[in-house]
Structures are given as structure tokens and as C-alpha cells.
Amino acid sequence: MTILTNLRLTLAALCVALPLSAAAQPVKDEAVFDLVMKGLTAGSLRFSATQDGAAYSAAGRLETGGLVALLRKVKYDASVSGSVNGGTYTPSSYSENADTGKRQSESVMAYRAGVPQVKTYNPPRKPKDFDIDPASQGGTVDPLTALYATLRDVAPGQECKVNVKMFDGRRASQLSLGEPKARDGTVKCSGEYRRVAGFSAEDMKEKTRFPFTLTYAPTADGRMRVVEVAMDTLYGKARLTRR
């Protein structure tokens, strides 16, 4: 066997082995944030997510606690699965149970070619003049996907690259982030959550724009992680602080 033949066999073996060794490993994100209002811990937000190639799945929970829970209980449980391509998320199935203190709801959606199909929305009610057609919400994502896209760890230079339109089964909204600004090893950017449609006149009169600020800090493995979200709420200033 000639040296040339040995080289060819070696190269062929490398061509077979490299794709296997270079196969991307699933990327996992887990986080717990404390909700702080007026210096007091008012609740928590937690989520876990996995991205395996082009597929992603996530589960999340937001709930009030402490003294705030005595005044108003808020709880949100959700799960989602879908695909991601070049930073664009396309859910395939989503479910949530929410209690805002003003309303309780259950929502189950499937997606067909990026268009949400509302399978369940409880409690049922008569149509309202501010209702929107789910068929008009193609290209939107669910609230949990928006949360995951915003709070997941990213590579340096990829901070603040989120601008998504959301639909939760009845209401449309938008979340957008501004330009990142580096300072003292951290990166910050301003953002805004905005109510768009499907809300009552009272809700729209109450408040439509909710500004917030994200703060990223480097992790031990060199990625950038959201460590704080400072935001305006209906009840005043609040912060989500990562544990």
C-alpha cells in the first residue's frame, strides 16, 4: 500500500469522523429571577429551555410571593416547543395558564406555517369589538418564546438582538430592544413592551408602553447573561434580579 493510498484513507476517515465529532450539542438555559419591588422580594420568575439544533423547547413560571401576594396574586405557567432559524423563532405548540389578578385564562395554540391556531381559550366569552383574528397574526411568537429569546445566554456581540411580535391567543403585543452599550464589563440596552391590539379600551387607557432595561454580564464560559431587568409595571418600578 503506497503512501498516497494511506493519505487518501486517512483523509476519508477524517471526512467521516469530523461531522460526528463536530455535531452541535444541545444548548440548555436555566434561570431563576427574584422580582423586587420597593426593596422587597415580590415574587419569582423561572424558566428552563433547550435548543437542540433547530429545535427548541421551554417551560416557564412567574408568580408573586411575600406581601405582594397578599394584595394581588399573579401566576403564569407556560410551555412551548418550536424551531429557530437564524434567530427567528417559529413556535409549533404553546400552552399557558395565567392569573393576572384581574383575569384567569387558559390558552392552547398550535401553529400552521407560522400562523397561530387557537385550540383552547378559556373562559369562553362573547366576541368583543376589540377582538383580533388569529389568522392575522402570522409570524408572531407566544409570550414564553419571547421571554426565552430575551433572557437566554448569548455569545458576546449578540446582546439585545430581539424584536418580536407576540400573540397570546387573544391579545397582540410587541417587544423590542435597542442598541447595546458596553460599560465596565457589562452590556446594557433599553427595551419596550407595547400593547398593540386585542386589549379593552380600559386596558389601553391604563397604559400601553412599558419601558425596561436589560443588563448583561459575562459568564465563566465567556458568554453573556442577563443578570437584571429593570422595568416599569402597573404598580411602579420593579426589578428582576438573577439568583
Summarize the structure.
The chain has helices at residues 3-21, 66-71, 143-151, 201-206; strands at residues 27-37, 40-52, 55-64, 75-85, 88-99, 104-112, 115-122, 163-167, 172-177, 181-183, 186-197, 209-218, 224-233, 236-242. The protein has 243 residues and is of the alpha+beta class. The radius of gyration is 22 Å and the shape is globular.
Question: Can you give a write-up of this model?
Answer:
With 243 residues, the protein is an alpha+beta fold. The chain has four helices and 14 strands. Strands 1, 2, 3, 4, 5, 6, 7, 8, 9, 10, 11, 12, 13 and 14 form a 14-stranded antiparallel sheet that branches. Strand 12 (209-218) and strand 13 form a beta hairpin.
Q: What is the N-to-C order of secondary-structure elements (H for helix, E for strand)?
A: HEEEHEEEEHEEEEHEEE
In DSSP terms, counting alpha (H) and pi (I) runs of 4 or more, how many helices? 4
Low-pLDDT runs: 3-18
Classify the oligomer: single chain
End-to-end distance: 62 Å
Q: How helical, in percent, are the residues?
A: 10-25%
Structural class: alpha+beta
Overall spatial form: globular
Please tell me the overall pLDDT. Answer: 89
What is the number of E strands?
A: 14
Rg, please? 22 Å
Instruction: Specify the biggest β-sheet.
Output: 14 strands, antiparallel
Q: Strand fraction band?
A: over 45%
